[in-house]
# Entry
Amino acid sequence: GRARHVTAEADPDLFWALRGAGSNFGVVTAMEVDLFPVPTLLGGELCFGAGAAEEVLHTYASWAHQAPETMASSVLLLAYPDDPAVPPGLRGRHITHVRVADSGDDHAEAFRRVGLLRRIGPRVLDTVRVMPYAEVGTIHHEPTDEPVAAYDRNILLADVDAAAVAVLTEHAGPTAGAPFLTELRAWGGALARPADPPNAVGGRDAAYSLLAISDPAAGNRSRRDDLLAAMGPWSTGMSYPNFSGVEDGAVEAVRRGYRPADFVRLRDIKAAYDPGNVFRVNFNIPPATSHGGDGT
# Structure
């Protein structure tokens, strides 16, 4: 059909849907983004050896719950291979990484808060420092020079209590031999409040996300799924689309990324703007159908 120019002001439903369901609703040709002055931040990671893993998780869950909105944080559980390419201090070891990034003005207060984590015990590595914002990528220090086959899956958690920590340790801790990496990330803050203007982003009631990433091997992916299933009692029933991988493209998996009423609305908006589902090479939201079927 004929091309039509749309804007956020003229098409508020489409703007609502685009912010949360992205590529299902077209191609953005221009946008304005507000900037916030954050010249420096306190960031880095605390790396603990195998003996501290469970205590780190217990302490972190309490610590993150009380952290201010300026403090973003996560915990990564990873058993490094005995490979010369791995830094000497990490090679062949199970490491519990606590990663932090505080964007507030009071670096001394943020440093004090990080000190509560340092009390857990000796660190294999401790890189927390005041850094220019441009160095934020060093906190996770992920490889960027070559592609890595990664099979991602996630669930959102309502809480992490002592029983949840025990399950997490059983499946991904030092003795688990887990053939995948696991990340527990604290949510909350502005994300926990209603959006203004509204948008389609789901999962706002989550306290944490739990992300597990495997290589392509079927057995390793199965063990990754065992972890997520075992953590089901603490799940909100939702997932986060940005942390989903190639295995979760089916409609039922995509549906878990949105509040039920929002998913119905998204399908109605899809039917209005893209009834032929042209924008389908994505985590697809099918258009609603007039006969009341599920459109799958």
Q: What stands out?
A: Residues 47 and 97 are 4 Å apart (CA to CA). Helices lie at 12-21, 53-66, 107-118, 162-172, 218-230, 251-255, 260-273. The first strand starts at residue 40 and ends at 48.
